[in-house]
Design goal:
CATH topology of the largest domain in chain B: Fumarate Reductase Iron-sulfur Protein, Chain B, domain 2
Shape of chain A: globular
Strand order of the largest sheet of chain B: 2-1-5-3-4
Mean pLDDT of chain A: 95
Shape of chain B: elongated
Bound molecules: FE2/S2 (inorganic) cluster
CATH class of the largest domain in chain B: Mainly Alpha
Radius of gyration of chain B: 20 Å
Radius of gyration of chain A: 20 Å
Distance between the termini of chain A: 54 Å
Largest sheet of chain B: 5 strands, mixed
Oligomer: heterodimer
CATH topology of chain A: 3 helical TM bundles of succinate and fumarate reductases
Structural class of chain B: alpha+beta
Number of domains of chain A: 1
């Protein structure tokens, strides 16, 4: 009860969004590393995906991830609503301050990119996790590689995925360093480095994920 | 110079308010922005009209009484400058400027460009003090404080409570103001006794007053006339979770 009360304050909410956000960034790093195995051919990729699918820990981890996602979104939406209430009358003229400000297109559109990423996530799970089930005749494992190649034969899917990865990159461009600020892990002497590292990781994740559909379409 | 102003006029807290256009003639570039408004008000009074209400006191950028938006920027376009220290040489002859009060649920407009900032006082009352009875004035340097610590505490203590941070924030968040006070006190030995309750109570009060949450954008720092850094907010966040865990 006390924890819930603490987490519902404005500062507690920020910390919750930061922790859940960083947890998902951790997931994305792992997910990207796994995905990149596709560049090494079907055997290794299917081997890896089989190891994941057959792991008994998969379901509890998935439940955990969904819980993290729900907490992240729920808290973020509540904060947006609270912010709306905090300024009932809008300014007639309002300019960005510039200078020391970290305000960017990414930081102003977090809720929009967030909602779009959620929609993408649903379609992504639908396409892959719950998509067509091919079986590798030699190993008997699920042949996700064939599905991957099939999906990204379509230029529509490639463009869709690349755009969505751009949104993910944008969301993380503000999100990663912002999480460190929210957790108070941003000493003055490290601020510039954390801001740069956050943007760099966002770029790596965005480009890394976008690379796979492009690779499949153009190279395979 | 001639300056065209579009000023927010509101007769009282319950009035709807509207913009009114005025032109100020023969403005000297050496005038401060408030002196230019004084000139306008003298003309308005002479014409039997209501003068434009705005707050000011020291007019030298140290008290935090003045403040409104000049063309969408709290305290106007100059960095680290209060509107009383903004000068007309910053503008050009024939410029059109929109003047608006701070807008936040927690800062209701009282009249024209004047808002009620007593919410800030109540945040301070919630914890921005030390209740250690110190007796008479202690000898200087009786409590040794490292030079860097004293400097850092002073950087935070510079906040003049003008409210520009709230005005600039898209969420009307008061966390830069609150964090400056929390950081200032957390750095000094006198602030240690109430260190944990202070941050918890001040954050709770801030929420109760209806200020929004922080999005870590830092518009507040960029418009702050005292250049209070976002690092203060990071400190507040850290102080807050430490206090929550230790409570
Ligand atoms: S009137 Fe005192 S700071 Fe402007």
């Amino acid at each position: 009860m006390k924890v819930l009360q603490a987490l519902s304050t404005s500062t507690g909410s920020k910390i919750l969004v930061a922790l859940t956000g960083l947890a998902m960034v951790g997931f994305l790093v792992g997910h990207l590393a796994g995905n990149l195995l596709a560049l090494f051919g079907p055997d290794i990729y299917n081997e890896y995906s089989h190891a994941l699918i057959s792991n008994p820990l998969l379901v509890p981890v998935e439940i955990g991830l969904v819980a993290i996602l729900v907490m992240h979104m729920g808290t973020a939406v509540r904060m947006v609503l609270r912010a709306r209430q905090a300024r009932p009358t809008r300014y007639a003229v309002k300019k960005w301050a510039g200078g020391a400000s970290r305000k960017s297109v990414a930081s102003t559109s977090m809720i929009v990119t967030g909602v779009l990423i959620l929609l993408f996530l649903i379609s992504h799970l639908w396409t892959f996790k719950y998509g067509a089930w091919y079986t590798d005749p030699t190993t008997g494992y699920r042949d996700l590689y064939t599905l991957l190649v099939e999906v990204f034969r379509s230029p529509f899917n490639v463009v869709f995925y690349v755009i969505c990865m751009l949104l993910v990159g944008m969301h993380l461009r503000h999100g990663i360093s912002s999480a460190f600020q929210s957790l108070g892990l941003m000493p003055r002497s490290w601020t510039a480095r954390i801001l740069r590292a956050g943007a760099a990781l966002a770029l790596i994740l965005g480009i890394g994920f976008a690379l796979i559909p492009i690779y499949v379409y153009f190279v395979l | 110079m001639r300056i065209h102003l579009r000023i927010w006029r509101q007769n009282g807290p319950t009035d709807q308010g509207r913009f009114e256009n005025h032109t100020v003639e023969s403005v000297s570039p050496d005038m401060s922005f408030l002196e230019m408004l004084d000139t306008l008000n003298e003309t308005l009074i002479r014409q039997g009209q209501e003068p434009v209400a705005f707050d000011s006191d020291c007019r030298e950028g140290i008290c935090g009484t003045c403040g409104f938006l000049v063309d969408g920027q709290p305290h106007g376009p100059d960095p680290c400058t209060t509107v009383c220290q903004l000068h007309m040489r910053r503008f050009k002859d024939g410029d059109h400027l929109t003047l608006e009060p701070w807008r936040a649920k927690a800062f209701p407009v009282l009249r024209d460009l004047v808002v009620d900032r007593s919410a800030f006082d109540r945040i301070i009352q919630a914890g921005g003090y030390t209740s250690v009875n110190t007796g008479g004035a202690p000898d200087g340097n009786a409590v040794p404080i490292a030079k860097q610590t004293a400097e850092a505490a002073f950087d935070s203590a510079q906040c003049i409570g003008c409210g520009a941070c709230v005005a600039a924030c898209k969420n009307a968040s008061a966390v830069l103001f609150t964090s400056a006070k929390v950081t200032h006190m957390a750095l000094l030995p006198q602030g240690q006794v109430e260190r944990h309750t202070r941050v918890l109570n001040m954050v709770a009060r801030m929420d109760l007053e209806g200020f929004g949450p922080c999005s870590n954008e830092g518009e507040c720092e960029a418009v702050c006339p005292k250049g209070i850094s976002l690092a203060n907010i990071a400190t507040l966040n850290r102080e807050w979770w430490k206090a929550t865990l230790l409570k």
